[in-house]
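Example 316, ligand zinc ion.
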Amino acid sequence: MHTVNGLHHVTAIAGPAQENLNFYAGVLGMRLVKKSVNQDDPGTYHLFYADADGHPGTDLTFFPWAQMAPSRDGYGLGSEVSLAVPPDSLDFWLERLQGEGVTISPIESRFGQPALPLRDPHGLRVTLVESPDSLRRSFTPWNRSPIPEKYQIRGLESARMVERDLVRTTSFLTGAMGFVHLGTENGWHRYGVGEGKSGAYIDLYENPTAGRGAWGTGSIHHLAWRVGDAAHQMEVRTRVLEGGSRPTPVIDRFWFKSVYFPEPGGVLFELATEGPGFAVDEDPAHLGESLVLPPWLEPERTDIEAALPRLTPPRI
Ligand code: ZN
């Protein structure tokens, strides 16, 4: 079976956009590789943070909906995103995050990997995981990051999801999407594709008494999985359909093509193609510096720009 290739991006909901930018670019040192708008709600930014080249699999994106209520924990939601950092870098990160006043939890071990859980300014659970495998991933350091290259975030490591009925989701993951069970620890069930290396696995927790989680500031909106090209995308889309979910038609997001569907437990998934990538409509040296709009919104640029909050580069 042709499985997905791993995580493509994770999208979450933030509060005010400037605070989001200050944290992910200023504190965590990721590159803002695309400044666009939510294509379904153009009065809201869509901000993309990644490595310097915006490699698929390095990308954490946000809809800053400042007026939205906080999210509600529960089943059917992604509950945490983890980011890969190089081995022996958590001491650096601990000191940096403490210095910046970030809410952190003690370093813990997850399947043998040291992990530093934190909360972003709007409550999103983010964990930095020391990941030896991440050193072999496609990665371009960001030379204007406040973080020294040897400590920089190398991409998405994984995500966590809470389910009311574990088997419904794991049957779908193994059947329609080609995941395999990699292990269980402290109630977390790890499933991955391929060898389940950095960026190619997910952790699930079953909570039969949980209420339905709800989107809001601080929640994950969806998890996007990488597919190589349009043919690969259609192959997986067909299996998703046969597996009982209802995928959307292919939607052109310009930097990739997307298909969306809920997994059986309710978490929104996406299949996103690896290309063409973020340099398709901007000079790679100046990614993220100006507002990029899809062609059908260009005639409304003046009104859209007037409605969006002005963003200034983060303090570095
Ligand atoms: Zn997406």
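Summary: The chain is about 15% helix and 35% strand.
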